[in-house]
Design a protein that fits this description.
By secondary structure, the protein is mostly helical. Helix content is 79%, strand content 0%. The protein has helices spanning 3-31, 37-54, 58-79, 98-122, 128-146, 152-169, 173-203. It is globular and about 55 Å long.
Amino acid sequence: MTWSGLLSWLHLHYIELLAVITGLLYLLYAIREKPVLWLFGIISSALYVWVFYHCGIYAYTLLYIYYVIIGFYGWYNWLKPVKKPEGDKALPLRYAARKELIIYLLIIVVTAVPVYIALKKFSDSDMALVDAMLAASGMVATWMLTQKLIDQWLFWIVIDLLTVAVMIYKGLNPSALLFVAYTLLAINGYFRWRKEYKAGQVQN
């Protein structure tokens, strides 16, 4: 690629590249349980609203608007001290109960169905079902992250793998690489959070 070609490509994709960079910082800080993750998540999500809208991934556009909004709640919830007999502590890691997981899965289905119908009827989306399912799953998984549920990483592994295929299909190659990285980091995050949870159980 020539310099002029590279500059032209950067001009067309600089917003996506900024979204990729801030998205990676978001996930790296999530693995380390640093509340600043929410700042980078809000920035990355806001940039992706623009990217996905212009690529015709409409449910994902709405999803990333949701990410921006819930990012502020997540930031607040992670910083809010939890009242315990031994004193105020940060929000602890925990596994979701079986009942919770069933509810989350039902919410995904119940949310995805009307989104799919709306996309088929009112948009030119060429991947309405996948778009709806990923959007609904992402909403639930992000809520689980705000609650520090270890299981949320398993949701993200599946979501990120499917999103890789979507990004390739839409020609968003930097984002495809981002979601490959997201998948690998989500696997790492799951095992890291699980290890920290077990260590905390032993100490207690």
